[in-house]
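Q: Here's a chain of 661 amino acids. Please give me its 3D structure as tokens.
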Amino acid sequence: MRLEVLEQRRLLTTFGEAWPNERELTISFPADGVAIGHGENEIASLLDPVADRQQWQELLLRAYQTWSIHSGFNVGLRNDFDVRFGTPGLTVGDPRFGEFRIGAFPQTGLVASSVPFQAIAGTNSGDLLLNSNETFTFHDWQDSLPPDPATIEDGDRDVFSLFLHESGNTLGIDDNDMSWSVMFGQYTVPKGVLAEEDIAAIQALYGQRIDPYELVDNGEMQVATLLGTPADFEPNTQVLRARGSLKDGQDVDVFKVVPVSGFDEITFRVRAKGVSLVQSKLEVLDSAGNVLQSHAATSVFDNDNELTLSGMTGTNELYLRVSPLNPDDIYAVGDYYVEVDYRDAQTRASDLLPGDYNSGADALFTGFDLADLEVGQNETVGDAVSIDPTDLIAGNRYELQAAIGSSSDIDFYKITAPADVDGKLVVHLSTVGTDAPLLKLRVVDSTGQPVGTAGRMRADGTISVEVASPQASEDYFVRIGVDPSSSVDVGNYVVVAQFDNAASTMHQLSSGTVDADADRFIRWEAAKTKLFRFDLSAVGLDQAQAVRMTIYDAHTREVKLVAKANADVTRTVMAWLQEGEYILQFSAIADGEATATGIDYSLAIDGLSDDQDDSEYDGENTGYDPYDYEYRDSYDYSDVYAYGPSYYTYYYYYYNPDYYT
């Protein structure tokens, strides 16, 4: 047997990629106990002793808003359905959580971690995770004033400074070596104000802040934007809606409304919840400019406005004026929807609205409606709905949100393998909300024959099916139906299909041949906690032959990750690994009754998360990079005694696990 030791080399996180749909981004706070890798979220238990919960949550929101006021993206606040971090889902707009999920778990070698947008990272993108082993302090940064240095003790870390830095990372901004910048690679002193270089970096990704919904300035009644009433508008059942934006503290938007005749009562709203963090004031004016009624948002956590006016019969025109609640406040900026509602009070009360941001998962017909009302249409391979690949990855990822409408409803979707496919097809199915139906998932070919594994349910309820060797440019069909044992027969679901292809940013970690009668072992070290992506590939003509990789903690012997790749297939897996040493075991295996004959393999690795630490920076090495993750070149330890007595521990445990049972 040969044990290889891998030397350190850099694994750098990918930066410089802006989020798609940048005006539709959201933040959510998963509850404590939600799984993060092998750990659990501890954000509330970490920060609640430091400040009231809404105080530290507001600092997090303020951190993102600090970037938003200078650039062309929005962040809204929404509830989190408390599914595990990194669960398969939509990269943007997943109905269960925000793009930016905020948490904390024990980590080593750093103060906090974050994952910038990377299509290969899936829903891990946007995660901002404090190290729950660290000590954090609260300072409100009113008027942008830092805390008194005399109050700062060794080991204290200002939580707003951490939030501001890590939120910049999640937005795609790289760290730098400018000590005055909030994006400086190390935590040194509290920093709560963006430097010119920081502002330039965020604008390079998202541009300057503008109002894209305003063709000309509409800040006065004379140039108000007309909210026209469509010819097919049904005022008893529908709501008139338009998008607006306050681009700075001095911006004012005025909308003109010509009321529908015959309605005495009209409700007007500014909806900002889940859209942005803007705090606005809504005023209703008559044609002479007199304010008839007004309403102001109460807080960043409750930033909708609503007014209901009576006695509107015979009114020819009204004006809605939307302005910042406080022009000098950081929350003076953001997008919103303005609404005109003629429906009666009983109808308005029946609206399905998402729960409060800290309410957990919503339920169907309470917090949301069916995603579609289709029943009996795409129920065969022949009338399957074709899904186009998302723009996030070049033709190998498909995303969809839809609904099951009855116990007999069947949904078929067609996806086409890319021409350069070289990895597995993995399909994930997740239901949405509480009291959801139990679903069944199959992947079939054009004749309706299953081509994937049986649906496997993960701990978070996600059902996964794998097709080991999809063929290039072939059509595959995803079949979804209600399990006969389900007590619920309607509900929404999310489908994600991914063809695993090797990423161009991957770094080669190991390659070689695994014999049928002898496993191969590699000792590898991670310098800090990090989210890693592993691409495991096997080479051979017999697709029944495969390689299995098992990653163990080198000291506790705990299994951290298991992955399998069949011949001519690339398998992608991701895992949070703590700082420390690991043993990677490669085994030649075979499917079914086939005999393992040995197989060639290769393993590539990429680091997906970034971090901030508090190591000292000497100010001289301009090429210094705090995020070095390294591996070692192969050394042949032919003399087992060269490795010392612990060699036998690794050999017997990893080669013969029964030794310790």
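Q: Can you summarize the key feature?
A: The two ends are 22 Å apart (CA to CA).
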